[in-house]
Amino acid sequence: MPRDPRASRLEDDPFDKIRLIKENPQQRVQAPDLSQVLQSLWGMAYSQPVHHHKGKIWHFSKEEKKHLLLATGAFTLALGFMTARGMMGMLAIGIIPWITTVLIMMPIMLVAVGPAFLLHEIGHKLVAKHYGCWAEFRADPQGLKFGVMIAFILGFLFMAPGAVMVAGRVNRKQNGHIAAAGPLVNLGLFLIGIPLGAILLAIVGVTDIGIISEQGLSIPAMVLFGVRYWLMANLILGLFNMLPFGPLDGLKVKEWSEGAFYALIAIFAIPVLLWLFLGKIDVMGWVINLSYLIS
Description:
Blueprint: H1 35-42, H2 62-83, H3 86-93, H4 95-130, E1 134-139, H5 141-154, E2 162-167, H6 172-204, E3 212-213, E4 216-217, H7 219-241, H8 249-256, H9 258-277, H10 283-294
Antiparallel strand pairs: 1-2, 3-4
Helix pairs in contact: 2-4, 2-5, 3-4, 4-6, 4-7, 6-7, 6-8, 6-10, 7-9, 8-9
């Protein structure tokens, strides 16, 4: 499999010694030079040599952990801005209530939506390492900055926080498996979220009041909100990544197997269409009814 071209922006190819065609340094695409800022704030390097790990498949280098932390932090901040409706929300309710809303919603959204992003990327990583590849997550500073600014200004989340960089020799089928791993993780999280959400709601109860009320924070409302976003985030992220364009997973899956591609995209598209757009099914209704049965 050709090396992911985005990886050249972050570090040297660990397989340079065995490649038959050497990369022309004059044609290498360079990332915006934010390394000095990131190194001073986070101790993060972008042009370090790759050190291969030969131990357990569940391994994260110190550098990778820093990138995951940065991406997760920026992603959570953007989610907080989104739930507070960006600058329009600030103008509507005032700056102090707006900041309070952002601070309250950030940890809720981190728990509700964070796993959809983090475990998606880890799914790619583990399958790539299973096939003997070097695979590590790298944050995209420009994508993070753009996503946070869009969420702050417009109250809308559109972010490319980064990706798992893969280098190694795999065939088309293996490459398809690596690509499909992320969306399949999202599918698993969606399915797990229905009974797990029902159990949580059975424990705390179901409420129709807001998260913030005259009585303070409502734990049942927070859980209900978190379960809804858990289910929505995994469906939307899985569907988005299955689109057959650019560096998205769908294109690699389609190149491996059109049958697998159409099956996976239908699995995500049907509930998104029927639940979120047409309202023909009520997934949260299923969760609430199941919680009543459990309790």
